[in-house]
Write a structure and sequence with these properties.
Layout lengths: L1 H17 L25 H5 L27 E9 L5 E11 L3 E16 L12 E16 L4 E14 L2 E15 L6 E9 L3 E3 L2 E3 L4 E12 L3 E12 L5 E10 L3 E9 L6 E11 L2 E11 L1 H4 L1 E10 L1
Antiparallel strand pairs: 1-2, 1-16, 2-3, 3-4, 4-5, 5-6, 6-7, 7-10, 8-9, 10-11, 11-12, 12-13, 13-14, 14-15, 15-16
Length: 313
């Protein structure tokens, strides 16, 4: 019964995405969708593992990767993430989850990306008019997830998103849906997720599609001993506005307090390699963790640093 439910869920997502993932283009489709800030990875742990996050993100931060993962969060959990993005752009996010009896796990999320002010230029004033222009993106989400059995968890999220460029702006409502199934074989789990469902939007004269993405993930513990664990994660990623990718990630845990991570994104234009580390400790009934990651975006854009802090109680 559990397997049938999972298969039906995967089929539902596949059929829904199938109607949107091929727009009739014969090229890579890059640059054909808006709200690109939603595709920036949130969280140092997931980013360090090459964004192979569907099966390994099981706390409050899972709200940004697969909403089903928050069903495995602590009774109450909060997480903060900061990314020093390219060109001095800052990207920060926070999420909080709470378990509610007979309902499931409820989560709230916030993403904010700020662009440094820059000088306006026009055809007549190509060196600048002297007027400064600002821009930002914001996303606010509400998620609900539930563990239907000890093996199957499903969840969804509704998100309000807005993009502001000087005096012009647009907003939209998007949806995410996902599931995680523990197979019972070793520690293998299978995950599926579709993110950023929503109608097309128009800004000024142009119309944009949403950055819809469909993912399937596998994760397993290759080594699972009392004092150490080695986890392998693989995600197949199909964005509707770019070429397909395969994300690989590994995590080594020593006594469940020291974590070393690495990842590789196959077929990504930039940011292929990543690595990071984390510390986890429990004190006075509070489980705290701090994680760091570095992603290499080449000589032109340099490296991207991420820092995350989480608390569960």
């Amino acid at each position: 019964m559990k397997i049938k439910l999972m298969l039906c869920f995967m089929l539902l997502i596949t059929n829904t995405v199938q109607s949107q993932w091929d727009y009739g283009f014969n090229f890579s489709k890059a640059g054909t969708a808006g709200l690109q800030f939603l595709k920036i990875g949130v969280g140092a742990r997931e980013s360090a593992m090459g964004e192979a996050a569907l099966g390994i993100s099981k706390g409050a931060n899972a709200i940004f990767w697969n909403p089903a993962g928050i069903a495995h969060a602590a009774n109450r959990e909060v997480t903060f993430s900061y990314t020093g993005w390219m060109l001095d752009i800052t990207h920060s996010a926070t999420a909080i989850t709470m378990n509610v009896k007979k309902v499931g796990t409820i989560g709230l999320s916030l993403i904010y990306m700020g662009v440094p002010e820059f000088q306006e230029t026009t055809v007549q004033a190509q060196d600048g008019t002297g007027r400064m222009v600002s821009a930002y993106d914001v996303g606010i989400g509400l998620a609900l997830a539930r563990r239907f059995t000890d093996k199957l968890a499903m969840g969804g999220q509704i998100r309000y998103v807005k993009e502001q460029l000087d005096q012009d702006s647009f907003s939209n409502i998007l949806f995410d849906i996902g599931a995680i199934y523990f197979t019972g074989f070793r520690h293998l789990n299978i995950s599926v997720c579709a993110q950023h469902f929503g109608p097309d939007i128009k800004m000024l004269r142009d119309k944009f599609r949403m950055p819809l993405v469909f993912k399937v993930g596998l994760a397993d513990d290759l080594i699972n001993l009392e004092d150490q664990r080695l986890t392998l994660a693989i995600d197949l990623v199909h964005p509707t506005d770019n070429t397909e990718r395969i994300n690989f990630g590994v995590e080594y845990s020593f006594f469940n307090w020291l974590f070393l991570r690495g990842g590789y994104r196959l077929n990504a234009d930039l940011g292929n390699w990543s690595f990071g580390a984390g510390l986890k400790q429990s004190l006075i009934g509070v489980n705290g963790s701090i994680d760091y990651s570095f992603t290499d975006y080449g000589e032109i854009f340099g490296g991207v640093n991420r820092l995350s802090i989480s608390f569960g109680f």
